[in-house]
Every structure is written in structure tokens, then in C-alpha cells.
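Escalated from tier 1: zinc ion holo job.
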Amino acid sequence: MIYLFLCIALTFGAEVDVNTFSNYIEVSQEHVHIEWLLDLDGQYINATSQSIFRVNSNKLKQIDLDIYQLNIIAVYMTSTGNVLKHNIINKGDQSLLQGDVLSIQLDRVYTRGEYINLNIKYNLDSKGARALGFLTKEQTYSKTVPYLFSQCEDNNCRSIIPLQDTPSIKIYFTATVLVKDPRINVFMTGNKLYNMKFKLLNNYENLQALTIYQFELNIKIPAYLIGIIAGEVVEKSTGNGTYVIAEPHFIDDYAQELSDLPMYMKEMQEYIGPYIWGDYKIVILPASFPFGGMEHPLLTFASPTIIVGDKSGVGTAIHEIAHSWVGNTVTGRNWANFWINEGFCVFLERKILSKLNGLDSVKLDAINGNSSAYTSMQTFGLDNSFSSMHPNTTNRNPDEATSRVPYEKGYQLLTYLETLIQEDPFQKFLRDYIENFKFQSIDEDQLYQFLLNWVRKNKQEDSQKIITEIQKVWKKWVYEPGLAPITIDVTTPLFTNANNLAKAWIDGKGEIPEQANDFLQYKPNQKSVFLQYLIDNYKDVETAVMTKIDEQYKLTFYKDQKTGYKWYRLILLVKYDQGLEGVHDFVSKVGVSSYLKVLYDLLGQNYNKQAYDWFDENKTFYHPVVVQAIEKILQKYPKKLIVE
Ligand SMILES: [Zn+2]
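Tier 2 regenerated the structure:
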């Protein structure tokens, strides 16, 4: 093992990405241009990609790219049109998990420093393209035209573009998208162009009837940050270069809820430094969007669950803004270093939230975050590498390792470092870190070396003491599964109060506690603590308690879906049958993957028939990656035949 590690370290100087089949070390993709003709009714895309590769080895004969269920028609040299031989190498049991290899035989041997320009003609459809959610027009609010949205992270971009699908490689991205229906508006990662900068690669019948959109991004990005939406959507300015995009019916309400976007941007820049990407646009997607948010540059996606009506859900928007620095400018090199994106991002998010909502509120967020990370660790197993900040994703789809663990343990590590280094110098460290690694993909080893050097240089008197403390915990914190080796201080009366109220409910066995009305003043994060206490002690929660809580707080069909989700978890754990219709309504209206995975797991255990019936009902509403995840969960609970 040590020998192998040394070999890798000596050869590449950094950790390789085990989740790509591309030969990205010998040859690196520099630029990807795509030309797509969208057929949203047929759920089909006619595509051509044009790429520039830089050769990094001395005898390059082939280029291997990642693909997932793509139909490859031809590969040819951009300049001459000469067709190149290609093979699809089927990866056996990895084929449906992580995809296959498109292996392209070059026309000669290439050497270090040369560039290769290639075009690939291909097509894709809704069956194979697991990065895409195709909604029929009936699934949209206005029901006029269909809707398309993508989710490439972690490694789903290979299901829409043949490329080096690894965060180790950053590319310039440009696109031409053609649509047949002029009512369909398109947005992609990058700036929308209005002057037809890119010549068309193909001839189209009836070209004048097509609407053409073009996009360009002048900063390199990893493939997982490529995103698209197409549908009847409009954008509305929220001031100072910030915009909200949504279906027309919702745009005014959403823009109102997100009217503080310019202020969030200002606060973030004051803390971490200038924003370099251009206009900040946030799309509020239809309900089947599987995540809370996704940080594509210039085109953040967010779930409608963040729109609560009182701005209490907009922490997600602040999180996605923070990714403009951590994740998008400095990027984790592979999925084992995902915490380099997310841990830093949560740290920045909570820095700004503590200014806006106070430190006690942020402590509640940290408590809630840690509790969902711990739930994931219990599901993975406390000694499983997925319960560490550095998951081993060899031969796995890295999506399987996705959980709050890297977010929260990463946040806790940075908070601990901040207490060692002190608040103002730590802010300087973060700014220097961004400056030093901007536009690069890095791993935790590079971060670690940079941190130690920075402390040596900037904390002269205390530096040795601080370095010793860091060295004591670093390896354990990053590599070992389970809870972090040091617990950060999150004590707050808000937590104690919510726990005491929940305990009083349980002890009352159906009597209403004296302080019951406190709950009505709670913000969502304090409600979440209250409900988490009941979840942790669900075996002691009697049906009479559930009935009274529901009467008092009206939690079934609750409008804030974060709170609703925890209440429904409790309903399924306690087997509170009277609340089941609320769960049914929730899983039919909310497409967020992390919620659905937990709820379907509990449904499978305790309400087998409903699990299968409700999944069948909602399959076409959920995003393909969610359908796959739920199918996997339900395999654990085979369908019971009910004789009527
Ligand atoms: Zn994030």
C-alpha cells in the first residue's frame, strides 16, 4: 500500500480521480463547445461537441473520454473533417453505475505540447441522460411548453457530453442551443451572447424557424458545473447585477423573497474578497429539482423549497453564492476531496448568516447539520469510509457517498482552525488561500501544506504551538470515519429551550406543556431542533402526544417544507397513521433527493404498500437520479403481496 501510494505521488504529484475512465493525465481537455438541437416534446437532443485537447505525454495515440448511455455517431478532426476510428469500451458492472469509455484512435502519434481539435457527433434521450430532468408541459405551472433542467454533479455530465468528467480538469465552456418553439427560453452556465459569435457546426432544415441561443464562459470550470434549463422561463432583476429566473407565474413572488441578493453578495465580498464571475443569476426550479441548490457559475439552481414566504429559507442562496469562491474558483480535485468545496462553503455561508441572524442562530444550524451528518453516518456505518471526510469512491458512483458528512465535518474543522488562528487572521488566511489556488483543482494535501506554511509565516510567535495542534488532529479529522475528534462549541439557550419543550411534550403523554406556545415563535432551525429531539426519542412518543402536537402546531401539510420533512419523518417512525396523508402529499410535491431517500426508507420499513404505490404514482415527477436512488432503497424492502 505504501509503495503504491509513493508511486502515485511521484508520478502525478497529487491524488488521482478514481471516478473517471478518461486518460486525463496524458491529455487534458481545454475547451468544450457544444451544439444542441433540443426536441423537448420528443425528449431527445441532437448534439455535436467540439473540443480542444492539450497533449501532456510523449507518445499519445488515443484519447479516452467518459460517456454514459450516449449514442456516438462519428468522431472527426475539426479542421479536415477526417473521420477517426472509435470504440465504445463497455465497463461491465460499472457501465450503469459510472458509464463506459469512448476510446478514440488518433491519426498519428502526438507529443507533449501539441493540441488536438476533435468533433463528436452524438445524440441522447431521456432514457439514458441521467443528468437531465425532462418535464412534460403538464408538469409545469403554465402547461404551455415542456421544461428541461440538468444536474451534472457528481459525475453525470458524461451522460450529456462525451468528455473528461473529472473535477481535476477545468475547461472553457461555450454552447449553441437551438429550439423549435420560440416560447422556449434557454439558459446555460455562462454569459448569454446576443451576436451569434459561434458559427453553426451543422446544417439544419428550416433554420429560419429555429431560435438560437449562445453562451460563453471565460473562466475555466470542471464538467460538473455545466448546467442548462429550457422552458417557459423569465428573468427579473433584483438589483446590482443579481437576477431571479423562474416560470412567469412565480417570478414576482420569488424575486420578492430573494430581494436581498445584492446585500448577500455585498456581505460575502466584504468577508472573502471580490466576486469575479459576472451577473449572479439564480433559477428557482420546478419542484422535482432533486437538490437544495446547485452552484453553476452565473446560473445557480435552487429548489422551490427555499421559498418559505418569510426569507427564512434563503440560507441556501447564501450557500450557493459562497460557492463562487470555494468550489467554483478553487475546486476539490476529486470526489474524495469534495469537502474542499462544501466544508469551506458552509463555513462562509454561516459567517454571513451569523452577521444577519446572530451567532446563536448559526449554532442551531451547526447542531442541525451535525445531526443530519450523524444520521448519514449511522446509515453508512460509523466505521465506513463514507462516514469520513475523505470517502473512498473506487468503483462506486460518487453520488452514493453524498451526505452532510463532508459539509459538517469540514465546517467543524475550519471553525476549530479559526479558534486556533483567531478570527481576523483566519479571514486573511481564507483570502490568501483563494488567491493562491484560484482557477486550480486541489486536494487536501496541498491545502494542508499551504495552511502550515501560512501559519509559519503569519503567526510568528504562536506558530509552532498552532502547528502542533493542527498536526495532532488533521489526519484523524480528514480520514477517520465517525464524529470529528474535537467538538466545537455550539451551546446556545435556543437549543436548550427547544429540547426542554420537546421533553415536556413526551413527559406530558398528551397533556399540553405550559410553555407550548414558545414553539410558535421559533424560527425554522429551532423548530428543527425540537423535532429532532422527538425523532431521537421516538420510541417514547405516544400517539396522544402526536395528536396534541398536530392540533397545537398544525404540522401536517405545513408550508415550510424543511420543518414538514422532519415532522413526516417522525410520523413514519412513530407510525402515526392519522398523519399519513401529509406524507403522501409531501412525497408527491417535493422532489428533493435527501428528503425522499429518508422518507422512502422509512415507508419501506413501516408502510410497505404505500411505499410502492406512492413511488409508482410519482416516478415521472421525480428526477432520474432520484428514481434510481429510491429503487435501490426499496430493494431492501421487497413488495409484500396483499391478499384482499
Ligand atoms: Zn454546496
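The pocket of zinc ion is lined by residues 319, 323, 342, 345 (CB under 6 Å).
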